[in-house]
Write a structure and sequence with these properties.
Strand order of the largest sheet: 4-3-2-1-11-10-9-8-7
CATH class: Mainly Beta
Family: Belongs to the calycin superfamily. Fatty-acid binding protein (FABP) family.
Subcellular location: Cytoplasm
Pfam family, one: Lipocalin_7
Shape: globular
Radius of gyration: 14 Å
Protein name: FABP6 protein
Number of helices: 2
Structural class: mainly beta
GO molecular function: lipid binding
């Protein structure tokens, strides 16, 4: 199917909206908030059908990797480094996951990776441009 490999690629952080309000809402400690602000995170996605490997490379060499299969429960890690179990769903070409304290979607739109996290009415949007 045409949309099957839509997510595969490497994406570099381009911009975000409502970062501060959102990370305070989900309770990130202030040093993590500073680290993450305008952070040139590179997100590397390998999609094989419904199987995903989703890796975030942070400046300074730290990486986090979440592996999941659409429709199956998987152990994941949050922005703040907490482990939890979630089932990622595919809805209208978007990946949708319920994190412990926020709702997260990811989609490819206009060649960019657009991620939206919502917590108690605060909407955090992060856009990354494709670099590979």
């Amino acid at each position: 199917p045409k949309g099957n490999m839509a997510f595969t690629g490497k994406y570099e952080f381009e911009g975000d909206e409502n970062y501060d309000e959102f990370v305070k809402k989900i309770g990130l400690p202030s040093e993590k908030i500073e680290m993450g602000r305008n952070c040139k995170i590179v997100t590397e996605v390998v999609q094989n059908g419904n199987d995903f490997t989703w890796t975030q490379h942070f400046p300074g060499g730290r990486t986090t990797t979440n592996k999941f299969t659409v429709g199956n429960e998987a152990e994941m890690e949050t922005m703040g480094g907490k482990k939890f179990k979630a089932t990622v769903k595919m809805e209208d070409g978007k990946l949708v996951a319920e994190f412990p304290n926020y709702h997260h979607t990811a989609e490819i739109s206009g060649g960019k990776l657009v991620e939206i996290s919502t917590s108690s009415g605060v909407v955090y949007k992060r856009t990354s441009k494709k670099i590979a």
